[in-house]
Amino acid sequence: MRITRLSAAALLTLGLAAAAVAPAAADSSPSPGASEDAAGPTRAGTSFRTATEFEQGQTATARASVGDYLYWSFPADAGQRPTVRATVKLPEKHAAETWRVDVYDGLRRRQACQYGAQTRTAPADAASVELACVLRTVRAWSEPWADDPLPGTYYVRLTAVSLSASDLGQSVDVEVRADSKDMGGAAAVDGSLAEPLVPGIALRTEADGKADEDGEDGGEKSPTAVLAALEPEDGWTSGWWSDRWVWTAVGGALASLAGVAGYRLTRGSGLPSRVPPGA
User: Fold this and answer.
1) What sections of 123-234 are H helices per DSSP?
2) Residue 13, Cβ density class (10 Å: 0-12 exposed, 13-18 middle, ≥19 buried)
3) For 171, phi and psi rounded to 5 degrees?
4) Between β-strands 59-65 and 171-182, what pairing exists: parallel, antiparallel or unpaired?
5) Which residue has the higher pLDDT, 220 or 47?
6) What proportion of the chain, given as a percentage, has pLDDT over 70?
7) What SS3 state is found at 133?
8) In angstroms, rounded to a whole number, what is the distance separating the alpha carbons of residues 6 and 11?
9) Residues 252-259: contacts with CB within 8 Å, 24+ apart?
10) 3-state class (DSSP) for residue 112
């Protein structure tokens, strides 16, 4: 009966912990800042500084010329594994063309793709070419020398890297989309960034707050960086919470129950009746 009660208590504890993990995981899952049906931007930038912002879950479109460098940017938070997909609708008549999509982090470091067709060659007269890049999981913190993806802005660059001179300048239609999978506590690390890697996109002049001796504003101005406008819907978490905390507590509770059960099994019922007290 004692073992039965202990087993029942352990199962009850595990069930309660699993119930707690479910809503916690749902709350910690970064949701895209735009709905699936939300319209994305209809243009692309031509450099990092002019990259067009779009949110995860949106489809950004643009009409461009073959040979242009096209840039977009989107936010990605800790625990997410972003996937970038690009589709290029080619002209009716063209020679073989090779297209490539690259992804850079907020420090403009090129991030390697875990898998996906990052570069593809479209045969002559193909209607379109599709590219994909699945990044590594975004970490909340990393060593300064490492090249790990960190929370912040991510840039997408799309261009043709091999084409004939006759195709240069032809019009193409482009679609770019970014989605993420929440990797949960398995990707959690100890540590977080003070601020996400969100670069400034402009400088705004504001009064520096200094006043002269008469109490009047001195009129001095100081430039202030204006950060990129987009961020995850629930804000930047920087890895402060993960379901790893819950499972650690569950493991501790089960270990305590196992210790109590082992003690009860090994202590016996006391001294045998034939042994006199104090012997």
Assistant:
1) none
2) middle
3) -85, 135
4) antiparallel
5) 47
6) 63
7) strand
8) 9
9) 253/13, 253/17, 254/10, 254/13, 254/14, 257/6, 257/9, 257/10, 257/13, 258/10
10) coil
The pLDDT score that the predictor gives to residue 220 is 55
Say if residue 157's pLDDT is above 90. Answer: yes
> Within 10 A of 51 (CB to CB), how many other CB atoms are there?
24
The residue assigned the tokens 């643009």 is 62
Contact 225, 200 (CB under 8 A): yes
pLDDT at 47 over 60: yes
CB 102 within 8 A of CB 116: no
**At what angle are helices 244-267 and 2-28 packed, to 10 degrees?**
170
Any idea what DSSP says for residue 204? E
pTM above 0.70, yes or no: no
The answer to whether 168 touches 67, Cβ cutoff 8 Å, is yes
d(CA 132, CA 142): 25
- In three-state form (DSSP H/G/I as H, E/B as E, the rest C), the secondary structure along 43-78 is CCECCCCCCEECCCCCEEEEEEECCCCEEEEEEECC
Phi first, then psi, for residue 276 (nearest 5°) are -70, 150
Rounded (5°) CA angle 127-133-134? 140
Q: What residues have CB less than 8 Å from 256, skipping those under 6 apart?
A: none
The distance between the two most distant Cα atoms of the chain, rounded to a whole number of Å, is 107
Q: What is the rounded (10 degree) CA torsion for 34, 37, 39, 43?
A: 90
pLDDT reading at 23 higher than 50: no
